[in-house]
C-alpha cells in the first residue's frame, strides 16, 4: 500500500468518525438538563428514608451498596496482590550480599529543612481531615474512600519529612494487613448480618436517628463509610509502602533490621 | 454554561494536551498531578463535590505517587 492510498484510507475513516461524533453530539440532552428519572426519584426520598443528608453517600452505601462491596474488594485484591508479588521480591533481594551496588553508590540529596518542617506541620491537619471525611459521609459529600486516601497521605508526609524509621514503625505490616481485612470484611459482614436478621443483603437495619444530617444518623451508611475509610487507608499505605521499600532497596537503604 | 465553566473546560483541554506532549517521564508525573487537580476543579465547578474529592485524592495524590515510585524503581542508574 502506497503512502497516498494510506492517506485516503485515513481520510475515509476520519470522515466517518467525525460524522458519527457530530451525530452523537446532536442527540445529547441540553447542557445541564438531566433527563433520567433516577436522580429526582432519589432526591425526593433520600432524607426521609435514610436520615442522611449526604445523598451521594446514601446512594453509594445504601441504594447501590452491593456495587460498592464489589469495588471495595477490587482495591482489597489489588493491595493483596501487590503485597504478594513485591514481598517475595524483597526477600530475594535481601538474600543477595550487596543489593544493586551501582544504585547504592549514587549520591542521595538530604531532605531540606523547609520540606521537613512543612510536611511535619501538615501531618496533623491531614490526619484530621481524612478522619473527618471518613466519618462524616452521612452529612456531606465526603466518604470513606476519599477520607481513607487522605488519611494515608498523612503517613506519607511522615516519610517525606525524612523520618524513615518513624514511618516504618508507624506501618507495621501485620497491623495494616489486619486493618485492611477488617475494613473490607466488615463491609461484607454488615451485609451478611442483615441476611441473618432475615432482611435483604445490606439492608439498613441500624437505628436511623431522629435528626436528618446528624453524625449519629443514617444507620449502616455511617458505619460502612467508616469501614471503607479504614480499608482504603490501610490499602494505600500498604501499596505505597511496598513500592517505597522496593525503591529504597535499590538505593541500598535497609529498613528491615530496625523494625 | 457560565464563564468559569468555559474557562475550566478550556484549561482541562490544554492540560490534557500538555500531558500527551510531555516526553520526560518524571516531568510527566508532575504535569499529570496538576492535570488531576484541574479535573478536580472542573468537577467542583460543575457541582459534583463528591467526585471532586475522589479525583483530588486519586488523580492528584495517589496515582502520581505510585507512578513516581515505579519510575524510581525501574530507572536506569546514570
Notes on the structure:
The complex is a heterodimer of chains A (259) and B (78). Chain A has helices at 3-26, 38-50, 55-63, 65-95, 101-104, 113-135, 144-160, 164-170, 173-196, 220-251. Chain A is an all-alpha fold and 259 residues long. Chain A has one domain (36-251). The N and C termini of chain A lie far apart (64 Å). The model of chain A is unreliable at 254-259 (pLDDT under 50). Chain B has 78 residues and is mainly alpha-helical. Chain B has one domain. In chain B, helix 2 packs antiparallel against helix 3. Chain B is flat, with a radius of gyration of 14 Å.
Gist of the model:
The complex is a heterodimer of chains A (259) and B (78). Chain A is mainly α.
Could you tell me how far the N terminus lies from the C terminus of chain B, measured between alpha carbons in angstroms? 50 Å
Total domain units of chain B: 1
How many structural domains are formed by the residues of chain A?
1
User: Could you spell the SSE succession of chain A in H and E letters?
Assistant: HHHHHHHHHH
* Gyration radius over CA of chain A: 25 Å
N-to-C order of helices and strands of chain B: HHH
Outline type of chain A = extended
Instruction: Give the mean pLDDT of chain B.
Output: 89
Report the sheet-strand fraction of chain B. under 5%
- Helix fraction bin of chain A: over 70%
Oligomer: heterodimer
Count of helix runs of chain B = 3
Helix content of chain B: over 70%
Tally of helical runs of chain A? 10
Query: Structural class, from secondary structure content of chain B?
Result: mainly alpha
Indicate the topology.
The complex is a heterodimer of chains A (259) and B (78).
Chain A: H1 3-26, H2 38-50, H3 55-63, H4 65-95, H5 101-104, H6 113-135, H7 144-160, H8 164-170, H9 173-196, H10 220-251
Helix pairs in contact in A: 3-4, 3-10, 4-9, 4-10, 6-7, 7-8, 7-10, 9-10
Chain B: H1 3-21, H2 25-45, H3 49-74
Amino acid at each position: 500500500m502506497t503512502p497516498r492510498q494510506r492517506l485516503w484510507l485515513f481520510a475515509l475513516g476520519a470522515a466517518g468518525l467525525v460524522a458519527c461524533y457530530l451525530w452523537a453530539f446532536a442527540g445529547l440532552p441540553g447542557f445541564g438538563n438531566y433527563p433520567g428519572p433516577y436522580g429526582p426519584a432519589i432526591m425526593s426520598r433520600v432524607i426521609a428514608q435514610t436520615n442522611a443528608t449526604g445523598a451521594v453517600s446514601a446512594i453509594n452505601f445504601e441504594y447501590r451498596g452491593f456495587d460498592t462491596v464489589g469495588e471495595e474488594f477490587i482495591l482489597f485484591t489489588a493491595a493483596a496482590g501487590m503485597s504478594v508479588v513485591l514481598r517475595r521480591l524483597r526477600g530475594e533481594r535481601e538474600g543477595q550480599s550487596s543489593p544493586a551496588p551501582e544504585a547504592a553508590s549514587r549520591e542521595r540529596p538530604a531532605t531540606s529543612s523547609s520540606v521537613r518542617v512543612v510536611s511535619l506541620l501538615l501531618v496533623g491537619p491531614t490526619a484530621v481531615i481524612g478522619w473527618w471525611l471518613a466519618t462524616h459521609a452521612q452529612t456531606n459529600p465526603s466518604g470513606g474512600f476519599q477520607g481513607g486516601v487522605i488519611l494515608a497521605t498523612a503517613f506519607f508526609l511522615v516519610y517525606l519529612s525524612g523520618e524513615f524509621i518513624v514511618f516504618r514503625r508507624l506501618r507495621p505490616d501485620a497491623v495494616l494487613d489486619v486493618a485492611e481485612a477488617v475494613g473490607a470484611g466488615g463491609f461484607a459482614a454488615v451485609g451478611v448480618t442483615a441476611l441473618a436478621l432475615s432482611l435483604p443483603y445490606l439492608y439498613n437495619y441500624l437505628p436511623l436517628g431522629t435528626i436528618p444530617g446528624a453524625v449519629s444518623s443514617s444507620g449502616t451508611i455511617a458505619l460502612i463509610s467508616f469501614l471503607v475509610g479504614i480499608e482504603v487507608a490501610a490499602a494505600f499505605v500498604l501499596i505505597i509502602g511496598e513500592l517505597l521499600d522496593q525503591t529504597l532497596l535499590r538505593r541500598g537503604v535497609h529498613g528491615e533490621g530496625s523494625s | 454554561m457560565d464563564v468559569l465553566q468555559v474557562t475550566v473546560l478550556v484549561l482541562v483541554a490544554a492540560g490534557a494536551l500538555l500531558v500527551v506532549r510531555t516526553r520526560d517521564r518524571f516531568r510527566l508525573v508532575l504535569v499529570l498531578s496538576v492535570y488531576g487537580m484541574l479535573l478536580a476543579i472542573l468537577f467542583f465547578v460543575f457541582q459534583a463535590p463528591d467526585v471532586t474529592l475522589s479525583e483530588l485524592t486519586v488523580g492528584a495524590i495517589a496515582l502520581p505517587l505510585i507512578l513516581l515510585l515505579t519510575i524510581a524503581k525501574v530507572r536506569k542508574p546514570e
